[in-house]
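Reminder to self: tokens first, then the designed residues, so the page reads top to bottom the way the pipeline ran.
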């Protein structure tokens, strides 16, 4: 408990608990300016409030009659969070105005509340992610079956057209190319599932060896040109990168670049270009895939590298796939 003289802005009475709270002796706290207990940034507001109360007998915080939290300052300059209840007093004989303050240190209470809130939020997020993972695992078989059935159905339909002999010779090469494309998609889906199973094992390793960077870039560029006519493809390869030799697992790095290029085409609106860039310094070759789509929504950022995590296209729809491409890519790059 602290009682202060408003006009003098000075403490006139305080109990020992208040002195201990603010780090003063009983003698030091007596006659101490009230403003010394207020944090530096709040002191101007405090002085203005005391001046108004001295003149009118009213103050916004005093008249409210409700406890409130604020930041106070100890003798050593350290801060503490306090709960403050203010009551106006007046000496009828001298007409001096006083303020009685009941002070409670709530620093530890607030810290514990924040810790509890943080732990609760983490537990809720863990439970949500666990439930989501359980759902994903439960539906994985059905999801894989669905994704595999799409190219299988396309291959069956295109083959039926060929066997029915209802199209001319000029159209046959286009149908055969379409069948090849669907077969390639089917192969990639199966390869992703197999790769995911391989990488779960403790014996997963990459086979590093010297490889010409240009061979990695050429494979990526060739793959990019087959993706979609709706995405103009450009290369920005520095001359130094075309002659550099790197230490890498070429098959794994090619897989990473194909995944990135495939994602760039799947997740961007038609007409937006996809770029493959390469530059190098004395120690490293940097290979980048860039698109000009809408970017990755913030809620998706934490999920895009998770197993079975699938993003959405520019229209917000789920894109085809089993959600393993970026998961595999990160595992490869880290290895």
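Designed residues (335 positions):
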């Amino acid at each position: 408990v602290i009682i202060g003289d408003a006009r003098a802005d000075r403490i006139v009475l305080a109990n020992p608990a208040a002195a201990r709270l603010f780090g003063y002796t009983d003698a030091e706290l007596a006659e101490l300016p009230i403003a010394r207990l207020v944090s530096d940034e709040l002191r101007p507001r405090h002085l203005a409030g005391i001046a108004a109360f001295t003149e009118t007998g009213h103050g916004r915080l005093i008249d409210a009659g409700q406890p409130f939290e604020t930041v106070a300052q100890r003798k050593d300059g350290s801060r503490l969070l306090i709960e403050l209840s203010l009551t106006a007093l007046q000496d009828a004989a001298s007409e001096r105005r006083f303020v009685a303050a009941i002070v409670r240190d709530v620093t530890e209470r607030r810290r514990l509340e924040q810790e509890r809130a943080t732990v609760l939020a983490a537990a809720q997020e863990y439970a949500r992610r666990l439930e989501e993972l359980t759902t994903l695992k439960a539906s994985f078989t059905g999801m894989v079956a669905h994704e595999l059935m799409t190219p299988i159905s396309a291959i069956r339909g295109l083959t039926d057209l060929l066997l029915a002999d209802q199209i001319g010779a000029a159209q046959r090469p286009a149908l055969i190319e379409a069948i090849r494309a669907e077969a390639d998609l089917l192969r990639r889906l199966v390869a992703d599932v197999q790769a995911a199973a391989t990488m779960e094992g403790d014996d997963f390793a990459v086979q590093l060896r010297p490889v010409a960077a240009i061979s990695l870039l050429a494979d990526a560029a060739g793959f990019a040109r087959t993706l979609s006519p709706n995405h103009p493809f450009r290369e920005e390869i520095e001359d130094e990168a075309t002659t550099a030799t790197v230490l890498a697992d070429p098959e794994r790095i090619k897989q990473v670049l194909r995944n990135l290029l495939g994602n760039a085409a799947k997740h961007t609106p038609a007409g937006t270009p996809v770029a493959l860039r390469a530059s190098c310094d004395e120690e490293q070759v940097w290979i980048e895939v860039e698109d000009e789509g809408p970017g990755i929504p913030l809620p998706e950022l934490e999920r895009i590298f998770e197993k079975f995590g699938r993003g959405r296209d520019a229209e917000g729809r789920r894109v085809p796939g089993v959600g393993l491409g970026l998961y595999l890519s990160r595992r490869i790059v880290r290895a």
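The two ends are 63 Å apart (CA to CA).
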